[in-house]
Task: inverse folding
């Protein structure tokens, strides 16, 4: 494993081990230790491969072109050779077949041509694409490594792309849709909300304590100080799990844990503003104080379309939900340290927007510098229109559009949107 950096010229130039081999090592180490009943022997990969996990400062990636494409085709022909032939003419082609389904990965300069060719041979049931040039540019412009770091929970309406862009660590809870269970940031929002509209069983669950411990250990192996802005302890056990681990393993007080009392957009807004503040000051103690103040002043209002999903998740009685939906009541809630607090009821979308503007106006004026997060569920177009209105009202504010955390969306339901804001 240590010698895989010599397998390819690019790996050797970067001074790192092969990523795929590293992933297999992590999997098999855990598998065999668990099989042997020796779960206390796990070692952070930062200890095992300490000098092979950091990309050399001298390494320069050459900008590429084309697309990295993953798709699934359900073939409608008894002669799939044409399908595999087309795929193998491209670069880095990997083809997995199961029955009449073909899962294909490849690199191509003409994604539309490939998609059309595949559609002619069968039904394209899934398609994902990444711009290779954009990926390389993002890699080359990633935040420089720092000795100070922020960690948080994906319940804060933050994505893996956000974590990569701003350089923080994201811990997932799990989303369960039917028989499928994955970390919440591995689902596409459309999959969740389509399932909910179809009446499919949806639930949420926490990651294992072991998984959370691994994140703490990995972060402290890389950074001198880590600030963990934790989802509110009323919503999950993450805060107390972190404190228990810290008591047993952090005698030097390198992991600072804050119970934000927040979730969804309020947590995300606190995190993004703290990450920005830490990057500017380079002072963890000041960033810790900034985060605590943000916890006190950041606000969020979530506008629900229906009450039935809160009832399905046990957050509301089914009788209350039935009468609320029958009367066309649209509740407004605010995630607080003591739980999700109902702060109002409106009749329609127009009233929702009016209330959101009133809440913003009560804290901000036209010249205020602030971070405003607008969150969407399956209604990104409508919330984008709201964002345009808010941009006109607060020209000095940074106004961002984010998908609402899917573990929150699983309780809030389709049609939900929200606004979180923090005055700087």
Result:
């Amino acid at each position: 494993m240590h010698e895989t950096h010599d397998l390819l010229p690019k790996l050797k130039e970067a001074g790192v081990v092969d990523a795929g081999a590293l992933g297999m090592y992590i999997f098999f180490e855990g598998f065999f230790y668990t099989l042997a009943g020796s779960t206390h022997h796990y070692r952070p990969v930062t200890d095992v491969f300490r000098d092979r996990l950091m990309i050399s400062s001298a390494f320069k990636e050459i900008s590429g072109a084309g697309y990295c494409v993953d798709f699934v085709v359900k073939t409608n022909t008894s002669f799939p050779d044409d399908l595999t032939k087309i795929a193998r003419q491209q670069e880095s082609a990997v083809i997995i077949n199961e029955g009449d389904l073909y899962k294909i990965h490849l690199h191509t300069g003409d994604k539309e041509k490939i998609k059309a060719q595949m559609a002619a041979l069968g039904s394209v049931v899934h398609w994902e694409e990444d711009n290779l040039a954009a990926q390389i540019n993002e890699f080359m412009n990633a935040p420089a490594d720092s000795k100070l770091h922020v960690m948080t929970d994906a319940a804060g309406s933050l994505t893996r792309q956000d974590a990569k862009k701003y350089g923080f660590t994201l811990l997932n809870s799990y989303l369960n849709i039917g028989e499928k269970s994955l970390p919440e940031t591995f689902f596409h929002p459309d999959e969740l909300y389509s399932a909910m509209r179809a009446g499919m069983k949806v639930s949420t669950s926490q990651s294992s304590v072991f998984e959370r411990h691994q994140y703490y250990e990995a972060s402290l192996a890389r950074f001198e100080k880590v600030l963990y802005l934790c989802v509110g302890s009323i919503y999950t056990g993450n805060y107390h799990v972190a404190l228990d681990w810290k008591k047993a393993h952090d005698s030097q007080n390198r992991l600072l844990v804050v119970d934000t009392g927040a979730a969804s957009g309020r947590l995300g807004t606190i995190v993004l503003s703290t990450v920005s503040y830490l990057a500017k000051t380079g002072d963890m103690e000041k960033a810790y104080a900034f985060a605590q103040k943000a916890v006190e002043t950041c606000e969020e209002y979530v506008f629900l379309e229906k009450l039935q999903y809160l009832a399905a998740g046990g957050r509301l009685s089914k009788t209350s939900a039935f009468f609320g939906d029958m009367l066309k009541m649209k509740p407004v809630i605010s995630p607080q340290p003591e739980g999700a607090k109902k702060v109002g009821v409106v009749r329609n979308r127009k009233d929702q927007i009016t209330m959101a503007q009133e809440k913003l106006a009560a804290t901000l004026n036209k010249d205020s510098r602030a971070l405003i997060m607008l969150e969407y569920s399956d209604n990104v177009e409508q919330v984008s229109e709201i964002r345009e209105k808010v941009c006109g009202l607060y020209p000095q504010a940074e106004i961002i559009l984010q998908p609402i955390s899917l573990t929150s969306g699983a309780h809030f339901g389709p049609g939900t949107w929200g606004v979180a804001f923090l005055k700087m």
